[in-house]
Specification:
alpha+beta, four-stranded antiparallel β-sheet, elongated, 6929_t:CDS:1
């Protein structure tokens, strides 16, 4: 299950898909054209798009969503696990250990970061 903010963002991207034209080159490669005749190549097997947004954010870009929908698949299946609720839960499942700042001063091992006050 995706984070709610990710679901909203993905839906916003999907809503922009209608003005694109898509050609399926083979089972996993698609050519997606904009209205201004620019195009991008999407490879669903390699999880790439020539716009590079899919690789950078690991969230389907508009070109990738068009290709995914053409392939009769769900865009949410192509969202990286970073955006899943279970990933976030696993990050925070261990308890956070509080540190008594008074003991930090006396053990001579743990030091506070050096703070430099900025002018102004």
């Amino acid at each position: 299950m995706l984070l709610s903010s990710t679901t909203q963002q993905l839906q916003s991207i999907i809503n922009k898909c209608h003005s694109r034209i898509v050609y399926q080159v083979n089972e996993s490669v698609f050519e997606v054209k904009n209205n201004n005749s620019n195009f991008h190549i999407v490879n669903l097997t390699l999880l790439t798009c020539t716009c590079k947004q899919f690789q950078e954010y690991r969230l389907p870009c508009v070109h990738t969503c068009v290709a995914i929908l053409k392939a009769c698949k769900q865009p949410s299946q192509f969202v990286h696990s970073t955006y899943h609720i279970t990933t976030l839960q696993n990050v925070y499942k261990e308890s956070v250990q509080l540190v008594d700042i008074k003991t930090c001063f006396f053990d001579n091992k743990t030091l506070l970061p050096v703070m430099i006050k900025q002018a102004g």
